[in-house]
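ARCHIVE CARD
CATEGORY: sequence design from structure
SOURCE FIELD: tokenized fold
FIELD CONTENT:
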């Protein structure tokens, strides 16, 4: 939208022009079904999907590209990982473990499995938004089939200690799954080094298209398919593959791989500039969640003493997310911030600012000016 500064990169990201470029031929002339094995129309789209699988595989350092299964997004990948695991292993191991700040598509999928007769332990996070290893250790038993802990939290940006948690899950014989929708392409996620068994990713959080994602499934892990039909994706996910979307996700992964380190430094600088300026304007400001263990593109902040709705009403020129309602979809406030045990006042005055690849220094300066005039209007400067 014209004249609006986009700081909602956790909700979704704009498509990178280089991603659009690789997608376009598959929306026009290269329209073949990748499963049409008898002619060139099929071969060229099949080849594009192979390239995309290799690009995603390279970013997460999978052992083989065929450990990547394309889905419609991270929601579907999470469903496949959790339901697929419980249907494959749940008879011997009927228990699941997750954390109370997971995305709804993990929590609700686990609750669905619970309604089907499996048992669930939801471990709380501490005040910084991090899960305590001791609490997890107590929760995981020799009946646990899957431990699911997200890599980067979508509202507060906190990064969990995935390698330690995966090792803990394995020590009790459980599989480890991570919802990496917000971490994939932003922080290094090496599935072999971190011993991840299952990892969900999404295209539209990394400047790729919406409607595509993938599940990494470590070789040897058995999953029961959730979409039945043809033999696409090695029989694990039926349905004609979407060459344009897969090619877009592959290119997005490739761009993220080459720019990850420089982008981290650049975005960290923008985050610090914005945070320092906002603290100068309003010293009581509080950062929600650990500032150290955090994806640098995320700032979840509260303005104690200010009515959150009034602040947002005065910040319409910035596309941001309100931690008090929109991001949680609940009128009673974010369940994630509640999980951190924050006082009501901090929850109701919280905002999430998401800095991304296309955020410029100028955008940050303009955003600071908007905050300044909003605080002035509210008589807080
Ligand atoms: C942590 C997390 N998991 C899962 C999802 C769902 O991803 P998708 O939109 O690809 O289904 C999101 C998107 O908001 C997310 O932030």
């Amino acid at each position: 939208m014209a004249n609006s500064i986009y700081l909602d990169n956790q909700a979704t990201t704009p498509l990178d022009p280089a991603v659009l470029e690789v997608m376009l031929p598959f929306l026009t002339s290269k329209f073949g079904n990748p499963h049409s094995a008898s002619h060139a129309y099929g071969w060229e789209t099949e080849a594009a999907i192979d390239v995309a699988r290799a690009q995603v595989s390279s970013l997460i350092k999978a052992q083989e590209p065929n450990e990547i299964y394309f889905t419609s997004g991270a929601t579907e990948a999470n469903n496949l990982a959790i339901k697929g695991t419980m249907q494959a292993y749940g008879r011997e191991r009927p228990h699941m473990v997750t954390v109370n700040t997971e995305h709804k598509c993990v929590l609700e999928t686990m609750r669905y499995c619970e309604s089907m007769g499996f048992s669930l332990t939801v471990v709380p996070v501490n005040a910084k938004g991090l899960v305590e290893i001791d609490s997890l250790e107590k929760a995981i038993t020799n009946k646990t089939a899957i431990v699911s802990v997200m890599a980067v939290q979508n509202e507060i940006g906190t990064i969990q200690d995935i390698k330690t948690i995966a090792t803990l899950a394995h020590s009790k014989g459980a599989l480890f799954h991570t919802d990496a929708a917000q971490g994939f392409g932003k922080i290094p996620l090496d599935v072999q080094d971190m011993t991840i068994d299952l990892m969900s990713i999404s295209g539209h959080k990394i400047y790729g298209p919406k409607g595509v994602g993938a599940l990494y499934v470590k070789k040897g892990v058995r999953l029961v398919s959730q979409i039945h039909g043809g033999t696409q994706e090695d029989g694990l996910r039926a349905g004609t593959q979407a060459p344009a979307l897969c090619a877009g996700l592959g290119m997005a992964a490739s761009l993220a791989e080459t720019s990850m380190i420089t982008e981290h430094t650049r975005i960290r600088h923008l985050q610090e500039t914005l945070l320092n300026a906002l603290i100068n304007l309003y010293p009581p400001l509080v950062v929600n969640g650990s500032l150290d263990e955090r994806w640098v593109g995320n700032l979840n902040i509260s303005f104690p003493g200010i009515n959150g709705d009034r602040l947002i009403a005065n910040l319409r020129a910035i596309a941001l997310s309100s931690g008090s309602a929109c991001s949680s979809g609940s009128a009673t406030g974010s369940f994630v911030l509640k999980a951190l045990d924050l006082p009501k006042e901090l929850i109701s005055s919280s905002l999430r600012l998401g800095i991304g690849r296309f955020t410029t220094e100028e955008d940050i300066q303009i955003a600071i000016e908007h905050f300044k005039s909003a605080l002035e209007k509210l008589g807080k400067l």
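CARD ANNOTATION: The longest strand covers residues 95-99. The chain has two domains: 5-12+260-377, 17-255.
SHELF: design records, drawer C
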